[in-house]
Every structure is written in structure tokens, then in C-alpha cells.
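Supplementary material to the annual report.
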Amino acid sequence: MNNVDLSVKIGSLVLQNPVMLASGTVGYGNEISDYTDLSKIGGIVTKSVSLHPRKGNPPKRITETSSGMLNAIGLANVGLEAFIKDKIPFLKDIGSTLICNIAASSVDEYVECTKTLDSEDTVKAFEINVSCPNVKDGGLIFGNDVNNVRVITEKVRAVTNKPIIIKLSPNTASIKEFAQAAKDEGADAVSAINTLIGTAFDIYSKKPKIKNITGGLSGPAIKPVALAKVLEISRNVDIPIIGIGGIMNWKDAVEFMICGASAIQLGTVNFVNPSASEEIIKGLNDYCVETGLSKISDLTGSYSL
Amino acid sequence: MIEKNGIVVSVEEIQADIFILKVRSPQIAVEEKPGQFCNIKVSDSTFPLLRRPFSICDVEGEVVSFQFNIVGEGTKILSQKQNGDILNIIGPLGVGFDFSGDFENVLIIAGGIGAAPFPFLIKNISDEKNIISFVGGRSKKDIIEYKLKNIITSTDDGSEGFHGNVVQLLDSEIDKYDSANTKIFACGPNPMLRALSEYTIESGFDCEISTESVMACGFGICQGCNVEGTHSDRFLLVCKDGPVFNAEDVKL
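Predicted assembly:
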């Protein structure tokens, strides 16, 4: 059996395979295209776009930790206008599904960005970032309050018919309530998880290793946490889940799908192995052949507890 | 820029805690320009997770060499590599030195392990130019002279050469050079580069500095290696806009 159907559906969004590149780890696609054939991946999620350009946080922005890294980039991005003018033309031709990640400091800003990008044919869906831990004026402030997530989802839903994915924070006691709120207000899917808040200190200078003091922890160190969150949503809320968190290889991707993910996103691994996406797609195909799966979508939520 | 497996040819400790790693990597050897760097995965595991960036020290045929000191676990692992080991390398990356131009004097300013990129630069500069290497370190053991030319040294503690830092050394010699006919290339710790940039801007010398930063990817997607630009609203990235900058263009 060689003809495995790798396509997956996330709400009304059909992806040619479940492997996506996570926001903030592939810029706007052009840099990583030197290492991987973007037309082969399931989808690419752009670096968060905000209404106005954001310079981001001053250095130092990243530091390595045990099997992980902390980052506090601070949503540095070119802003909506430059994104449309300078970045979309390249993304138009990548031959993969483009999902635009939106970050904002207010409900109005989320709405305005979504509304403006709704008319761009290249943008096939939106991922709403309500969970960035590294900015003071937005992001997690929204993501930590279930009512805000409810309001943002409702207002964004009102201005687009394209699929909406709400990117959830793990820095909360009960992620399932947030997933439920997103579903209730008409989101097509949730992506989980964004980074975990963490910090690291130099023991001699006694100063934090990143300027922002705290940052978002990513990489293989967070995979067990991410899997538990995906499973929690999967067992409690009927909504497609995009699993994210420390996926380094195809086995990790399979594990996320078993725990309930319809698709997965690769983040930190892109920094270490920029051609990981193609290797993982091949690994998923081989796994399906090996285990006799004709459709990879049958793997989603196939856990046996 | 490419991602390739290179084969370790040798790792040699040329002086206490300073190593030269030689890797056979024909493609990178052909493409590499002085001042560029490579991002090396030192292990197959997630420890350490991220690659480690090293500037190219020299290229001999198909063999690329890197000079490094032991900073942490990554460089320790690298120092223990054996002939025949495979290393996954991304490179060449970044913007290197611009050594075109009519100047007659090339002044190299190296602080500690900042000597790393200069053997390859010196090799690529015409023999007709007058190259002087100003090499500084905290102490005698920190002076690295590997493949440098016409060396003058300084140490902070006075244990070798000029007693003072390398910028003070340069100042003591600068009268010999005409700014219109001289270009300075520097690499070293940030405080040294900061002091040197102030000095060269004030004295009107053309100066390029090779900077370093913690980074994850090395090719512009992680945005982790930002540095403040002088003429730019956005941050510059050491990996993509640098690592070599004109001294006037960055605020370290």
C-alpha cells in the first residue's frame, strides 16, 4: 500500500498533509525556502502580523536551556501594510497553504487586521495569536482571560468567512475552557500550544539571560506539556486541534496526532534542521504504510486509554 | 548557503584552550568568503539543542577550518571530535568583509578569540598591501597569533607586548597611517568593538567590525541575534545583515 492519503481537514481548510510551519519560526517563508521545498508542506503560518510595524524587544532575545530555548522576540514584524506589499507577492507562489498569524494590542486591531487581509486571496486562513508571552500590550493579556478570547473570536468571526484558528496559551489552568470558548464563538480550530513562560539566570552576574527577564520556552523540553494540553482539549471539546510543542521528528508528530491533533506545526526544529518538514512528511507516510493506515486523518485522536 | 555534512579532518589544540577544527566540506570551501560564518550542529541529540556559530578561520582546498575556545558544553563537545566524525554544517552564512578598494594599509585588530576570521581574510588580500595585525588579550595566554601577519601585541596585564588594551595600542601607532589610505578590520568582544568604533569614527578611519551574538538559526528566521542599527528603524540581525558591519552602522 503506497498511496497513503496524507491530506487533512481543519474545519473547511484542506491541507495536502498535516505538517505546517509554525508562526515566528519561518519568518515570511523566503529564508527557509533555501532549505526546504515549501510546496511540499501542508501549510505555512506567517510571523505574527500587527497593524503597525513592531521593532520587537532589545537584545538579548534568546537563550538555550536544557533541550529547549527561551525567546522574547516581542512580535517584531513589518506591519500590515508592508506585509501586503512586500511579503505576500513571494508567498503567493510558494504552492502551499498560507495561514496568516495576527497579533494585536486590542480587539479592534485584531478585527482591522483580519478585515484587511480577508480580501487577500493568498491568505487562506487566520491564526489568531492570543497567547504571546513576550509583549506587554496584548498577547497573553488576552489569552489568559477566557472572556477576551470569546470576544476576539466573535468579532473576528464577524469579518471573515475564512477559517479561523485560535492559538492557545498553555500558561493557564484549564485550556479546555479556552478551546470551548473558541468553538462556541465560531472558530474552526485551535492550535496548541504557544510557548511556556520561563526564565534563566546567569549565576555570576545574577542577571537574567534575556533582556525581557522572562521568555517563551520551546523545543523538545515542552513536548510532554503540549501533548497533555492537546489531549485535554481532545477529550473535552469537539474542535479540530493543531498540535504544537517540541516536535523534532516524525515520531513526535505521530504522537501528537494520536493525542488528538488533526495537524501539527513545527517550530524550534526549523532553527536546528531547516529541512525537518520534508523529513517528517516522509516519515509520516512511511508510518502509515508500516501500520496499514490508508488515511493519515484516521490517526487523529486514535489514543487507547 | 547550504546544509551539508562535513567530515572532521582534525581538531588541534594550538595553545591552551584554543582549538582549530578542520572539516572537509568541498561546497562550503568553494563558496565561503572572508568574514562569513557557519552554523554547526555539534551533536546528533537535543543536547545541546541549537547549532553553534563559528566564523571561518581559513580554507585550504576542500578543507574549512574554524578557530574556537571552550565556552560551554557545545564547544567542549566540538573539541573532542575525532578524525572521520560527521558534522552537520549550515553555511556559508552572513555578510563578510569588504576588502575591495584602493587602500594601501590593512590594519587588523583582534581581541582574544576574535583573531578567528583573519587568516582567511589575510589570504584573500593582495600581497601588495601592507598588512599589520594588532592582537590583544587579557594576558599573554590569550594572545592568538595563528596565521596572522606582522603582529604587534598588547595585554591588559602587561604580560606581553604593549601594556594596555588593543585600542590603546592602535592609538599609539596610528600616526604611521593615513586614514585615506587605510582600512581597519576588527573582531573581538563587544566592549572592545564599541571602544574601537568610537575611536575610528572620531579619527575618520574606515573600519569594519565582525560581531558575535547568540543565535538559533543563523539565517534570519529566529530573530534572536538582533543588534541596534544607527540608521535603521528596525533592529539589524547579526546573522543576515552582519556579522560584519561598518563600524558606523551599529550600536553595540
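The CA atoms of residues 94 and 240 of chain B lie 5 Å apart.
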